[in-house]
């Protein structure tokens, strides 16, 4: 009996699956720019700090 309950709980129903698909929105151009700038700044600062503190001497 407990196996059937576990197997039923692990599967998602079609209505739950379609509900998840409806929650997806594409990123706005400004959000894409923000992500790009944030990643670029992070990589640039990482390189600057590596050279500034001489980690790999």
Radius of gyration computed on alpha carbons: 23 Å
Shape: elongated
- Quote the average pLDDT: 79
Low-confidence stretches: none
Strand content: under 5%
Describe the structure.
By secondary structure, the chain is mainly alpha-helical. The chain has a domain of 31 residues. Helix content is 75%, strand content 0%. The chain is elongated and about 60 Å long. The model has no long low-confidence stretch (mean pLDDT 79).
TL;DR of this structure?
The protein has 57 residues and is mostly helical. It has helices spanning 2-10, 14-22, 29-53.
Give the helices and strands, then pairings.
Elements: H1 2-10, H2 14-22, H3 29-53
Output the keywords:
3 helices, 57 residues, 75% helix
């Amino acid at each position: 009996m407990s196996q059937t309950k576990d197997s039923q709980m692990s599967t998602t129903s079609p209505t739950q699956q379609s509900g998840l698909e409806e929650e997806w929105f594409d990123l706005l151009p400004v959000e894409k720019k923000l992500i790009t700038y944030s990643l670029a700044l992070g990589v640039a600062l990482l390189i600057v700090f590596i050279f500034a503190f001489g980690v790999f001497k």
